[in-house]
């Protein structure tokens, strides 16, 4: 622990600087920085975050030296502002504010006007000549202090509605009523003075303790309240959501008060140095004359536009600061330029004008939406403010989502209240009429209606309806449920696990928290946030091709990244979409979805029910022409680029999920009894299908399936090669756990390639490789790489087996795991670096120990997750593969990984 | 490859020796050894196994030098026996025999009498003065050679029943019929001569090729046939079963023929230097006068006892060699002594007496049963023939099974034909009346009947019937199914997965391959082999306590082993049994089985159905007194020894498998609707329960369960400590994947310990540790060991997750995996060293990197498997834990591991 407990700032110099955020918090560090830059900042000092940790480690006490240092710092503030803390004639008032390393807006406490008491108020009145102002400040102090310090920080838990603040507000209401007035501002100086007296009596009565008159007691109370609020409920749950560690702690900023509410030559405002919604290089903000900062934020008064360019239809009648106080506006504009140049990024600032003098209260990096982030980053790079690498790093990959999907009109969305919330499975916004079956979705869509398909869960047999729907909404399932996977693949808006829905299929309606929504009713979804709205909300469609800054940014990103970016796509149209988004190949084509077409599923089922190899082979071969056509479509779309095709993976019983009628038909077609058919289907039932007869275990038990699939791939390759299309199929064997499994399948695949080449008299390139998706594959990767030409980490399954978690069943405990911090996050969302990551690293390293040029990629859902992509980069993978709509995100994330790990 | 292709032996010296088995095969190496020892061996030479590999690698051709070397060796044999190969006057005849590193009895080919042709037969007649003998030898050669060399080795596949051997035998039968005789021996010299003519014509006719007259062509044909037979169907499938690698190859032994069938001063026999069934130090064997070796083995003539002591009721009228040829018997006895002394182990020998001269044809380590193995090993050590360590190594751990369980009377068993075969899930033999429900089993047993419980599968609710039954037989399930696990724990005879059974519960009968077995019918099981017999077969009960040699052997074993041996036991009586077998503690007490008693299951179900913590806690606490009693029983039985108790592990839905009546009752008891109850039960349903809400995930979601169990353990510990019983409970948290999970549970457990100690004012020792059973736990063992005081590898689950195999579902593909050599063996039987073993090693090493004295054990089924125990030893574990009846096996296997890895 450092020896210094107080960092001072003000009067053109400071102990701290902007880079000391860890110690001083964001606010404190930036106040120091501004002070050093000569920007007018009310003097003050910062008690660093270390003291917060000390406080919690030492039973809520302070280092012995702190008191002296604070007193000395206060004295220096006194001399800078030429006033004295607690001096009845010329009192200094201070604010006490929190300030963590990372902004936690509204999560911790603030106390203003510290230093006011029965004596100093007289000095304030004299100094300001404004008794009403002084008593208003005093009553605010009592209200705030009794609530924040005396009640909350003391850990007193009042009964519902009986908190001290509520009761004081009630007193104020009573007085307003007795005076026959409505607004606080109408209370007279005398009223407020009376109120402070009433407040103090009430506080004593409620909390059994007098409101302290000693300024230093007030100050220490404020400091303690800030530290205490670091572990308040709101702050803790915010940290949990944002992933902020508890040990960071908060700093405390004690600063001389300035007042924006001292008359019409006073004001307060907040501003962004550029427009945070559009990214335009325009000074953008709001201000209020004769007001305190909280008034702008609280929304009680409509703030005025900062300048003329900010004016809108709604605000053009309001006077801007530029017009009202042109001198001060110019000064503020100069500071704006200064700060952007100094920080080389858009700033979010707060200022107060006290009796014609401008004070800066805060500067920090401004938050912005995706569109703005891209525009600012590219423009700042072009202005020379930052370099291109920095521009690339300025945009969070996930911010690109906004540029890729239709969005609900944000204004309309804000007005509509969400009626339910689910998991944000597919980003974007959509609006449509509710239907409850895939067939209805198709029928209604054919009639030209926009529909949203609502189901408890979806299955592969719903795919036609899902595809045609504007969006999908399910009551069950998680982020990797069927609906979520399919929707994400298509970039379709989707919300899953929305447990508030109770669907009544018979009546074709759903009950949402008591609200009945019938088939045909309009609803709207925000899939990025997981929110469901009643009624129509218009959507906004981004135009990527016209977004020059986006195109520029992605070019820069591509220049820096080392990882290739491929896509997971099962259909030519998805592949084409991904290619348009910059995919450099396909990392995963699942062949199983191809079997669900009506003609195909019958042959598939025949194959499954077959009792001997001959019948099975006959049925399998019926699928060959379909598969060949599928592969021709995909390989042609991805000409000149590699296409990884995974052989059949899921357990066979997924294909024989039959209702009575279907069973009857199939039995008839196969010329067997329904009973026999059922017996065969029953025999396929597994207790743990995830660990059962699937993946290459199928191809080993039924080599004819592998033969058919390999032949279909190679016949497609041969046909396209003849047409002059360059193809590079990569045949991928799933769920390999032993080298012998892979070798078994590899032999069949190569034999098929040889046969097809011989039959057709043509050569083509191809590779044979495997998924690494069970721990044993990673552990024996050196063996497997002897024959495998590439690895693709299937991190969904690898996560399941490494943890022993079933994706489908973690709903029972994962939420409480996250809540209790047993896991930092859902390992199916972001790759578990500690555990699963070891196997990914080991598999890559060991694989390359036998085959140095082994091509290694990832095709699990993690391939589109920025944090996981960073790991893939560090491990030295060749590429990541993700759903088409995440391709731009993966490109940007790969560039980030390369730049951050330089 | 060595430069030498031929290793000669004979005349008191040899190129090879006994230790050269890899090169010369077992037979060749031992012939060389005997020759060097001066034991009379017909001279000859061995073509080493390397040539076999060369042969297969070079398209079935030989090294260039081989032909010359063989010719030279033949010349030396000629000079030793003073005869010439192919010499019409004085012909040398040779045999060609296979000889692999490990004995593969009957799996490869042999050709005798090579060198006989139309010319040399005259010399043989002259030499022996026995025309009949000579033509018999000739017709045997033609039969054997045309079959083995000309047909099989040439790869000719005749139609069913049309093989050359069958057709020649048919000719012989025709001749016998025409002569009106029954036995081959009645055929005259002229008949046999005529037969050789007929045979040669037939061979030409059938195979389109003449029987070769050139002796060297015959010799090379024979050599080729032996090599060829290495990859014959029988040999390949035998190797697969015995785990013999293909690359070992076979040697070929070419040796001068000696004849035991040259009159009444000739004979042949086989013998063991000690009794292989009892272990007694008695020369034990059989012989036949005027016969060839194959006659003894073939069983056409009843062989005579070797000596007077060998005579039994059935054979006392037969003359022994000791009586018939006392001189030669003395010579043989001397050789017996010589060989045992030289090889320091019991030998299995073959000899031939040709016209009064003794020749040794083979010596090898003799096979023996478990009882004999123990007795011989201990007696040989006491005789000073071997040291104690060698004695310990002489007994295969699995051989102890015979000493621990009731066995079917082997004689009676051999007579009865098995009606079905299943998986040998619980060793030993049993006989009883068939019942089909656990309740019937209990009822019938109370009436004093012996019953065998037959089910499709068993569940925890069958346990009372399983326990009382003599044996358990199921039609489904694998080696780690519920029935198998439970039976093995009790040392009960059990066969599972006997798919031939079709049980009709309504009619209370089963159909076994068309045979109807009704309730009450008697059946018998050999659980060691998995065989089911119809009817009663008497059983033999071993008396371990009276087996001095067994006791001695185990004392020696305990002296050498480094691993502790604990047991897996859930009930005091099992614990006591294991303790009697030498268990040094309990490595796994599963608490879930304790919840199935009628009073308990109700509280358990109440707990599961509870909708809030309060109700759940109330229900859980009802279980406390039961659990405490359980733990008192086990801890008391295992006083002074450590007892590892695992907290609740299985998914909750296992406890709410209700029929309609039970559901009704429970709903009534809980005062909720049946519908609501069902909804709650349905909500517990999981797609992959093995990867679902179980293990510590339960204790984290419902801490009150952990609290109750920990409290029950500690209250039991406190109570016993007060009584002066020394207890060492080790509380084990299941299915930990992250250090945070363990820490969560550990805190609760320690809190309970503190509470109980404070309440009862007494101290006791205890440990808190965890199972390592998912890969992530092994990967992050260093983190987990920061708080965990011990690790116990749950290798059942670890195997499941490392491979991604569900034990319950591998039936669909594992058999074909073994068959196709994709896996060398069932990884749930013997620990997969290559994959899972890496995690076991890593987990141990990383765990000890943070806690050097970390106690490490294994409690999966592998803890009783000798090969897996060897791995545990090498990894440096502290102990293995296995079911009670495997404790002696584990003790011996641990000693083996220590001795072999010295």
Strand residue percentage of chain A: 15-25%
- Major β-sheet annotation of chain A: 8 strands, mixed
Number of strands of chain A: 34
Residue windows where pLDDT falls under 50 for at least 5 positions of chain A = none
Label the overall shape of chain A: elongated
Strand order of the largest sheet of chain A: 15-25-24-17-18-19-20-16
Could you outline the blueprint of secondary structure elements for this entry?
The structure is a homodimer of 902-residue chains.
Chain A: E1 7-10, E2 13-14, H1 21-36, E3 44-47, H2 49-57, H3 66-81, E4 84-85, E5 91-92, E6 94-100, E7 110-114, H4 120-128, H5 131-152, H6 164-179, H7 189-207, H8 215-230, H9 233-242, E8 250-256, E9 267-272, E10 284-289, H10 293-298, E11 304-305, H11 321-324, H12 326-343, E12 347-354, E13 357-365, H13 370-383, H14 388-394, H15 401-404, E14 407-408, H16 410-415, E15 418-421, E16 423-426, E17 429-435, H17 438-446, E18 451-455, H18 463-468, E19 471-474, H19 482-490, E20 493-496, E21 501-504, E22 509-512, E23 515-518, E24 522-526, E25 531-534, E26 539-540, H20 548-560, E27 564-568, H21 572-580, E28 586-590, H22 598-609, H23 613-637, E29 642-646, H24 660-670, H25 674-683, H26 696-701, H27 703-722, E30 728-733, H28 739-760, E31 767-772, H29 775-779, H30 781-784, E32 790-793, H31 795-803, H32 814-819, H33 836-850, E33 855-858, H34 866-875, E34 879-882, H35 887-900
Parallel strand pairs in A: 4-5, 17-18, 18-19, 19-20, 27-28, 27-34, 28-29, 29-30, 30-31, 31-32, 32-33, 33-34
Antiparallel strand pairs in A: 1-2, 1-3, 3-8, 6-7, 6-8, 9-10, 9-12, 10-11, 12-13, 14-26, 15-25, 16-20, 17-24, 21-22, 22-23, 24-25
């Amino acid at each position: 622990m450092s020896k210094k407990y107080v960092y001072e700032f003000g009067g053109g110099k400071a102990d701290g600087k902007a880079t000391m955020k860890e110690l001083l918090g964001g606010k404190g560090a930036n106040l120091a920085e501004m002070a050093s830059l000569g920007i007018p900042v009310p003097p003050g000092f910062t008690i660093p975050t270390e003291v917060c940790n000390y406080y919690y480690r030492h039973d809520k006490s302070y280092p012995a030296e702190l008191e002296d240092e604070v007193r000395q710092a206060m004295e220096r503030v006194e001399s800078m502002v030429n006033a004295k803390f607690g001096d009845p004639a010329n009192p200094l008032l201070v604010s006490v504010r929190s300030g963590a390393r990372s902004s936690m807006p509204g999560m911790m406490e603030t106390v203003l006007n510290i230093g006011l008491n029965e004596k100093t108020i007289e000095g304030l009145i004299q100094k300001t000549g404004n008794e009403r102002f002084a008593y208003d400040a005093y009553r605010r102090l009592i209200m705030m202090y009794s609530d924040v310090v005396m009640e909350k920080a003391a850990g007193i838990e009042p009964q519902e509605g009986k908190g001290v603040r509520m009761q004081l507000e009630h007193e104020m209401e009573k007085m307003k009523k007795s005076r026959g007035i409505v607004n606080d501002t109408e209370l007279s100086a005398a009223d407020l003075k009376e109120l402070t007296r009433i407040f103090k009596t009430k506080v004593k009565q409620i909390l059994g303790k007098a409101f302290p008159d000693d300024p230093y007691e007030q100050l220490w109370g404020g400091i303690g309240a800030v530290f205490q609020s670091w572990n308040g409920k709101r702050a803790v749950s915010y940290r949990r959501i944002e992933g902020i560690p508890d040990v960071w702690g908060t700093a405390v900023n004690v600063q001389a008060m300035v007042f924006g509410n001292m008359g019409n030559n006073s004001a307060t405002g907040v501003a962004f140095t550029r427009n945070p919604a559009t990214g335009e290089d325009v000074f953008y903000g709001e201000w209020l004359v004769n007001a305190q900062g909280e008034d702008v934020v609280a929304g009680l008064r409509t703030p005025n536009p900062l300048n003329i360019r900010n004016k809108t239809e709604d605000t053009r009648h309001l006077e801007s600061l530029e017009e009202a106080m042109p001198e001060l506006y110019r000064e503020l504009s100069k500071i704006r330029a200064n700060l952007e140049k100094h920080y080389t990024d858009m700033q979010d600032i707060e200022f107060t004008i006290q009796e014609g003098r401008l004070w800066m209260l805060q500067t920090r990096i401004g938050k912005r939406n995706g569109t703005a982030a891209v525009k600012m980053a590219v423009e700042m790079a072009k202005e020379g403010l930052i370099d291109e690498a920095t521009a690339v790093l300025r945009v969070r990959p996930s911010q690109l989502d906004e540029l890729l999907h239709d969005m609900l009109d944000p204004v309309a969305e804000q007005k509509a209240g969400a009626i339910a919330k689910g998991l944000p499975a597919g980003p974007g916004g959509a609006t449509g009429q509710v239907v409850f079956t895939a067939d209805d979705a198709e029928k209604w869509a054919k009639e030209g209606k926009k529909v949203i398909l609502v189901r408890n869960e979806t299955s592969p047999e719903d795919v036609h309806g899902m595809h045609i729907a504007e969006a999908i909404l399910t009551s069950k399932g998680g982020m990797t449920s069927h609906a979520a996977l399919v929707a994400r693949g298509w970039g379709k808006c989707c919300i899953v696990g929305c447990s508030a829905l109770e669907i009544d299929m018979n009546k074709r309606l759903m009950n949402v928290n008591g609200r009945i929504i019938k088939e045909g009713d309009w609803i709207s979804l925000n899939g990025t946030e997981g929110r469901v709205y009643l009624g129509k909300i218009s959507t906004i469609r981004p135009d990527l091709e016209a977004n020059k800054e986006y195109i520029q940014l992605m070019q820069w990103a591509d220049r820096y990244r080392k990882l290739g970016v491929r896509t997971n796509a099962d259909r030519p149209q998805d592949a084409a979409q991904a290619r348009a988004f910059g995919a450099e190949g396909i990392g995963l084509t699942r062949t199983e979805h191809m079997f669900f077409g009506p003609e195909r599923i019958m042959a598939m089922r025949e194959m499954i029910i077959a009792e001997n190899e001959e019948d099975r082979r006959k049925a399998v071969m019926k699928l060959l022409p379909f598969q060949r056509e599928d592969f021709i479509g995909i390989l042609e779309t991805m000409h000149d680029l590699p296409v990884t095709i995974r052989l059949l993976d899921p357990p066979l019983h997924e294909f024989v999920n039959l209702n009575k009628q279907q069973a009857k038909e199939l039995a008839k077609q196969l010329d067997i009894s329904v009973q026999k058919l059922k017996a065969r289907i029953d025999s396929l039932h597994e207790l743990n299908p995830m660990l059962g007869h699937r993946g290459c275990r199928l191809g080993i038990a039924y080599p004819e399936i592998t033969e058919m699939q390999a032949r279909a791939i190679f016949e497609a390759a041969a046909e396209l090669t003849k047409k002059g299309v360059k193809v590079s199929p990569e045949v991928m064997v799933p769920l390999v756990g032993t080298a012998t499994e892979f070798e078994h399948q590899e032999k069949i695949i190569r034999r098929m390639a040889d046969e097809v080449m011989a039959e057709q008299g043509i050569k083509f390139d191809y590779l044979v490789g495997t998924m690494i998706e069970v721990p044993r594959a990673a552990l024996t990767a050196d063996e497997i790489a002897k024959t495998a030409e590439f690895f693709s980490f299937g991190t969904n399954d690898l996560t399941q087996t490494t943890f022993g978690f079933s994706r489908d069943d973690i709903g029972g405990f994962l939420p409480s795991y996250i809540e209790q911090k047993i896991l930092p996050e859902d390992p199916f969302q972001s790759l578990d670096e500690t555990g699963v990551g070891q196997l990914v690293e080991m598999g890559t390293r060991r694989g390359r120990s036998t085959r140095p040029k082994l091509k290694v990629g990832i095709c699990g859902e993690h391939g589109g997750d920025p944090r996981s992509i960073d790991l893939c980069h560090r491990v030295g993978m060749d590429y990541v593969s993700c759903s088409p709509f995440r391709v731009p995100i993966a490109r940007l994330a790969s560039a980030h990984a390369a730049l951050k790990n330089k």
